[in-house]
Amino acid sequence: MQDVDHQPCTDQPGDDRPQHSTGHAAAHQSFADQSGDGADQEQDDQMRKGHIKPPAPTPFWRNRGFWIYLVVLLVLNYLISIVFMSGPARITVPYTTFIQQLNADNVKDVTAQANSIQGDFKKSVTSGSASGTLFQTERPVFATDNLVVLLEQHNVPISATPPGSGGSPLLTLLLSFGPALLLIGGFLYLSRRMAGAGPGGFLGAFGQSKATLYTPDSGTRITFADVAGIDEAKQDLAEVVDFLKTPEKYQKLGAQIPHGILLVGAPGTGKTLLARAVAGESNRPFFSLSASEFVEAIVGVGAARVRDLFAKAKAAAPSIIFIDELDAIGRARASSATFGANDEREQTLNQILTEMDGFTPNQNVVVLAATNRPEVLDPALLRPGRFDRRVTVSAPDRVGREAILKIHTRNVSLAPDVDLGDIAGATAGFVGADLRNIVNEAALVAARKGRTAVTREDFDEAIERSVLGLRRPIVLGADEKRLIAYHESGHALMGLLVPGADPVKKLTIVPRGLSLGSTYSQPIDDRYNYPESYLRGRITLALGGRAAEEVAYGAVTTGAESDLQQVNQIARSMVARFGMSPKLGPLNLTEPGDGAVAAQHFSEETAKLLDEEVRRIVDECHREAVRLLTENRDRLDRLAEAVLKKDTLDQDEIYAAAGISKPATAHPVIAPALPANGSSHDSDLAKNEVGSEVTRA
Predict the structure, then answer these.
(1) Which of 79, 280, 348, 498 could, after both became Cys, cross-link 221 (CB 3.0–4.6 A)?
(2) Which residue has the higher pLDDT, 307 or 413?
């Protein structure tokens, strides 16, 4: 059981040196040479920039030498197959000679197939110009001798094979020409790989970049009109797009295009979507790939791919490079396990640093990168000159969520009762990817029910699926079901009694996801600052299930496992991160890193004190939960009985069963009221606000 709380590349001038010549003819020749060289140079420049495509290579099937090679190889393969598949050489003897040798007791064994007879002579026999012990002959169809009796009289072993059991013509043909065709196919494959590998031949193909090139006319175009809820990030990137479109507007003022822009945000906030919108708005070549595609088992391949990627981008300049999940190769070199200068990841990172702002400056190529772990990136990668601008892509607020829902429901038939503003309010903490999934799930639910439009009920069910999980068709016993009812009722009652707690929207004992029952609490609005009282209320609400078991049954069960995990996380963060412990004071004992388990960077005494403070906070909240449920035991019983009858209760039914009046309006308790101005307590706060739950402007 778990309590779910939803929370310009310019051309170089030509050589102007004087050309010495003698006579008119020499001068004419010199002019012609210069003109030819200039034309060739101009054509090379155009090809390098991609304006003129290089001539296509001649197809291999138009090469006469290829067909000669093919015929010779097939004939040679056929001759070799005859040698190895024809078996040992046998002499052909007349049938009368075979009968004579049989009567002379010189036949060792025979094998018959229809009228064909093969066998071995005990002694060599000469037939014409050939001699040997291996023979073959044909028995005439009109022969009337009893050959079987004759063979048995001379004790000759007889073997036979059924007619038509010889080798299949198709198999023979395949064995004759298959190896040659396989060799030719392999040769053609390697030839084409080598031809397309560029410098370095076949092995050079490993060093080619795997970036996908998006051009203005390729695929579905995404623009800033398809992005909502992250207006600040759109404004920062719109400036870069405008620079790519009209660089002279900025260059006349001495401004330079940013070398790199780092998109930072939680998963699902729309970093990749923003990059795709930049590609659609800029109308410039856009190279996109994941950072993990640089890394291979062969050392040096990642650096080679970085060089190849930037070479292609410079040839198509002005252009954009987008690297997703930059932390895969951009980790701080001091914190990653390296093995000297040969480490593949370190070489790749060094090459990126050089390409972005090395000895040769990078011009007219903008690098976009996305990560959700900026704290692990190398400082050399984050400095100005490489990533000049960091754009934070945050989770959208209520207005932003409504705008995102409008985009994702453009092609969805909505019923009149659907208010996207209300749905945005019910999805506090959701990011763009979550909202897109909810719209799709709601459409699937409506289609499953045979509806012609998506209703509010479908959206509510989709939100529950996203938060609580899918229903599990398991059968619970009556006693276990009652225990779960009391456990979840304890959570729900804490949400009604604890001041400032998030309102409880639904109570259910239907197994969903990994839980046997759920209490769904929904925040009133978006919150960015949490007072200590709110965090304590979260802990008390999470312990309400365990406290209800103690009050109702006098025992505890394993059903509070996920609740205790949440309690430990909140309480430890209060002490170690937020400085909400009077004994430890305003200290942050955490250390930024790459998420791995690091060595403890504080003393054993501090660690002991940290554990004691965490236990103190949890014990105080647990005692408060037990006290509230003991004083409201009748409400707990009524709520448990009500949910046992209906399995699921909505907000109004929860208030009615508990006998508590539903508040007209709910306002979150963000902070306690400030003392009056001029009081001694207010003077103390003005001097030293350490430990205060209020941040005053």
Answers:
(1) 280
(2) 413
